[in-house]
Write a structure and sequence with these properties.
Blueprint lengths: L12 E5 L14 H19 L2 H6 L2 E12 L9 E10 L3 E10 L2 E14 L5 E2 L3 H13 L1
Antiparallel strand pairs: 1-3, 2-5, 3-4, 4-5, 5-6
């Protein structure tokens, strides 16, 4: 697993992604739904690095996903070397937007945008973005 901090990509994480036999569809390429799982792996990596999920749950809130847009650029096959990267693109008062790229053999295979928020675990209502995350995002913005 790799972590890299790109100046225009706040809180960026990178992840080497193995292509499994069960990821392949009848056409011999990675199934579209697998990319969604990879995005989840990347978001969990980001949380591990910057705002651990266990810590969030102890405080009574959790991130939720409100939407995913993905554009497939080129197919990925079994045996390809795959790497994903994800970063925080925008952080509002209540909502966040992340962007991601999936590369296969160092070529862009997919791009994605995911939007979400944080909610109170007890009532499911949105809460303001956790201050710890806001501070890390703002610190990065000042550096770049």
């Amino acid at each position: 697993m790799l972590v890299n901090h790109h100046p225009q990509r706040p809180l960026e994480v990178k992840l080497t992604i193995p292509v499994r036999t069960y990821d392949i569809d009848f056409a011999g390429i990675v199934s579209n739904i697998v990319y969604i799982r990879w995005l989840e792996d990347l978001r969990l990596k980001c949380l591990d690095e910057y705002l651990p999920l266990g810590q969030l749950m102890e405080q009574g809130y959790t991130p939720i996903l409100a939407g995913t847009e993905i554009e497939y650029k080129r197919p990925i096959q079994l045996g390809d070397k795959v790497e994903g990267c994800l970063w925080l693109h925008n952080l509002g008062r209540l909502k966040w937007t992340m962007q991601a790229e999936i590369l296969s053999n160092n070529q862009l295979s997919a791009v994605a945008i995911q939007k979400g928020a944080f909610v109170n675990v007890q009532n499911g209502r949105p809460i303001p973005i956790p201050q710890e995350l806001q501070q890390q995002y703002l610190a990065h913005q000042q550096i770049s």
